[in-house]
Amino acid sequence: MVSDAATNKARQSVAQSTAIAVQDATDNLRNLNTISTTAIGVALSQLLATGDPKYLEVIEQAQQIMAKGTDNFATLGEKAAMVAKQFE
What we know:
- By secondary structure, the protein is mainly α.
- It is built from two helices and no strands.
- The protein has helices at 4-50, 54-86.
- The longest helix is centred in the N-terminal third of the chain and has 47 residues, at 4-50.
- It is rod-shaped, with a radius of gyration of 20 Å.
């Protein structure tokens, strides 16, 4: 039979691991948003300077990257919560 102490340590380990996974996903989302926002700023600057519509595509792609990053973050958060709840 598994002792209560061992079970509690396992729960703590799972909670810590899921917290680290969410923290890493948060860092990733922040980095994606920083890169995408920078790309949007540069593309917008070039669009205003040149009028070339190719920069609109860059802006759209950068926005899609941010949206995908947000979706991935939400999915990871949901899965991390499910894992943590299994060990309550």
